[in-house]
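4.2 Preliminary Data

To establish feasibility before requesting continued support, the project team ran the inverse folding procedure on a target of 132 residues. The structure was first converted into the token representation described in Section 3, and no sequence information of any kind was made available to the design step. The complete token record follows.
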């Protein structure tokens, strides 16, 4: 059986891993997932991530979760654009998450960026998820 929303699966694994106070989580690798992990690391929501070979030409992502005083740094992580309903936004219409305290991750022609980086580069795109 194939997975209909791979990015949504990764976000759920992160959410569940933090609720279970896991040190790190494992999920299948893809370019899109790795790009989202890079944004999460650059913004300080995860400690680090790395790829490992899983055999037969497959890779896995190992994401080290980040905690502050025993509580997960990510308070809320949710998928915005879903396979059944894609959400696109122009640069002027990009939403702000909790008045700039959180971020939206956007897939743009310049790559996967946080909302403030997309505004700085003056590009819009598909709003993938919201993190706070």
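Position-by-position output of the design step:
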């Amino acid at each position: 059986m194939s997975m209909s929303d791979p990015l949504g699966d990764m976000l759920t694994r992160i959410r569940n891993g933090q609720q279970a106070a896991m040190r790190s989580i494992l999920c299948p690798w893809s370019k899109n997932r790795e790009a989202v992990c890079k944004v999460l690391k650059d913004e300080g929501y995860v400690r680090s991530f790395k790829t490992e070979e899983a055999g037969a030409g497959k890779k896995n992502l190992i994401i080290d979760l980040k905690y502050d005083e025993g509580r997960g740094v990510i308070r809320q992580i949710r998928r915005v654009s879903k396979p059944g309903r894609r959400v696109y936004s122009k640069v002027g219409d990009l939403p702000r998450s909790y008045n700039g305290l959180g971020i939206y991750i956007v897939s743009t022609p310049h790559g996967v960026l946080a909302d403030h980086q997309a505004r700085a580069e003056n590009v819009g795109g598909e709003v993938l998820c919201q993190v706070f």
